[in-house]
Write a structure and sequence with these properties.
Layout (H helix, E strand, L loop, with lengths): L13 E2 L3 E5 L5 H8 L2 H7 L9 H11 L7 E7 L4 E11 L4 E8 L9 H16 L4 E7 L3 H10 L2 E12 L2 E11 H6 L4 H4 L9
Parallel strand pairs: 5-6
Antiparallel strand pairs: 1-2, 2-3, 3-4, 4-5, 6-8, 7-8
Length: about 200
């Protein structure tokens, strides 16, 4: 009988220069609930049509997200000594194949376009490659999600293909773009580590 994969324990904290990543915190549930029911954020991040969710239903789902699993890690993005500003996730983790997928959302619009998403992505990439020992990290963008697409490309992901007319939204079909970065490509990037500070989170087992 095949043994059940061990859950990935999220790091207690990953600190950069301007942001820090932490596990989901129940005291922030109302901010997460507000972002969850934001139609614009839903349009950018979700394949599902927007439907406002009741707090009780969201609370049960949020509590499940807080529980470690073998395939997913959900983290909060905070300004380094300030408020919660977004979320980042690692999903579809395969320890055998050593690959996963990442995504993030800056929910607080005051922090859009100011480089906080770039630093958060750099920190989570370092965690994936250096701590989880991933060989490949993937990302996906919708055709209309230009901010996320520019961030993924600017960080060094390679465009691997297109799922044509994948998503129906706003009365038309949109493509989904597929990206990935290999460990060798991550190490070969010309990135100033001091600009973001690599995390020193303990390795998960």
């Amino acid at each position: 009988m095949r043994s059940k994969p061990k859950a990935v324990s999220p790091p207690s904290e990953i600190r950069g220069k301007r942001v820090r990543l932490t596990p989901l915190q129940i005291e922030n549930i109302h901010t997460h609930f507000q972002w969850n029911n934001d139609p614009e954020l839903n349009r950018l991040d979700s394949e599902l049509p927007f439907r406002e969710e009741r707090f009780g239903t969201f609370k049960r789902r949020f509590e499940l997200m807080m529980q470690p699993t073998a395939m997913d890690v959900d983290l909060e993005i905070h300004e380094i000594d300030g408020p919660l500003i977004g979320v980042v996730y690692i999903s579809e983790i395969s320890r055998h194949n050593r690959h996963c997928r990442v995504g993030l959302s800056i929910g607080d619009r005051d922090y859009w376009g100011r480089g906080f998403g770039r630093e958060a992505l750099e920190l989570v990439l370092a965690y994936c490659f250096d701590e989880l020992r991933m060989h490949r990290v993937a990302a996906e963008t919708f055709e209309f999600g230009t901010a996320w697409q520019n961030l993924v490309e600017g960080t060094g992901f390679h465009h691997e293909g297109v799922s044509r007319e994948y998503l129906f939204r706003d009365g038309k079909y949109w493509d989904k773009h597929l990206y990935a970065m290999l460990a060798t490509e991550y190490e070969a990037r010309d990135v100033d580590e001091d600009e973001y500070l690599k995390p020193s989170a303990p390795a998960s087992s």
